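Posting this for the archive.
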Amino acid sequence: MSILVDRLQRLGQIERTGFGFGASAQQKKVPTILVGVIRVDDDTVSEDSADFLVLDSCPDNTQISSLNNQQSIWGMFVGSDHRITADQADKIGADFLIVTDEYASASIILENDLANGFLIDRELNENRAKAIDAIGFDFLILDGKSVEMPLTIGSVLDIQEQLTRYSAHALLRLDQIPDAESLEIFRDLGISGILLNDSELKDGDLKSLRSTIADIQPKKNNGNIGASLPNSEQLADTYDEFEEDSAHQQH
């Protein structure tokens, strides 16, 4: 299984490692929201800078060695401007591919070793959105570049409008770093991760962001069902039962 997909499925949970003989058990919490960075330059990005990396172009051998030696979770865009096959990506150590447009090879759908994601265009019509959801991509990246920070009600509604169309894990691509309150709202909406461009980040931004996310607890499921008014069918059924009981008592 893709490491990224595994992390998405265990957001907010505790990872335990080191169960072998003579090894001390270690615990590590999976963040409630993952942070991904789109790398558009050739600089080496340390493994502590993001939960996963998205490369804007195919890496050279030096970069591949650096990424794999750091055990980074990384993948690439694939589409009309990003030509690489799933088999090629798998051989160099990629964990996932993100489809940027409909010109990418359909063979990606059949790939079992790599996760597949899809970059969503907000202008998609309803039928196309249903088709994307039906294919069953492992995750989707929603367009949040127009989202205002701090969040407004309108921005929240825009995000929710996109979320209601899809059932896969949803990541949000942003142009701005969200604050703590915005991150909590993302968590409550069901956003699994955010994606930022490295060109928009300053030194210390990612460390601060991940520290903020580390303090955010998973969303609590409220098991208490609140009182609600009965609907007309429930009232009719209750009335019928009452009539039957009354008739039985009279006999």
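The chain has one domain: 32-220. Confidence is low (pLDDT under 50) at residues 223-230.
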